[in-house]
Amino acid sequence: MNQITTYLVSLILTLLVSACVTLLLRAALRRVLADLCGTEERANFWTIFSMIMLIAMPLVIGMGYTPEASASSDLFFEMTRQLRGNFFGYLFALAVIGGFISFFAIFAPRPRAGDAK
């Protein structure tokens, strides 16, 4: 595997894993955001924003990767280290979004069960 192939494989794997996990989270995230935001339009915006951040963050981190090894085995392990960093970026973005949602879930005013219209 040459350096360009290693770079592209790293980006494609990052994109695929990020997109798959994000699609798995989308429905649950949408329900939570609809509850917190109060309107469907707001929930749609924040769902799309979250999806973009969860896919773009690891991809941008991955784009900063420049393979330097020349041997195939060295390139493989270098790519695995880079993928670890990319997925850490995904988990970091997910934790930040989760932190904001948790904060607003705790402090957002909600009608009580007996106050239903």
Characterise the protein shown here.
The protein has helices at residues 3-37, 40-63, 72-107. It has 117 residues and is mainly alpha-helical. Helix 1 packs antiparallel against helix 2 (40-63), helix 1 packs parallel to helix 3 (72-107) and helix 2 (40-63) packs antiparallel against helix 3 (72-107). The chain has one domain (3-107). The relative contact order is 0.15. It is elongated.
Tally of DSSP helical segments: 3
Low-confidence sequence ranges: none
Question: How many β-strand runs?
Answer: 0
Distance between the termini: 64 Å
- Cα Rg: 19 Å
Strand content: under 5%
Q: H/E series, N to C? A: HHH
Question: What tags apply to this protein structure?
Answer:
single chain, 117 residues, mainly alpha, elongated
Question: How do the helices and strands line up, and which of them pair or pack?
Answer:
Elements: H1 3-37, H2 40-63, H3 72-107
Short description:
This protein is mainly α and 117 residues long. The protein is 81% helix and 0% strand.
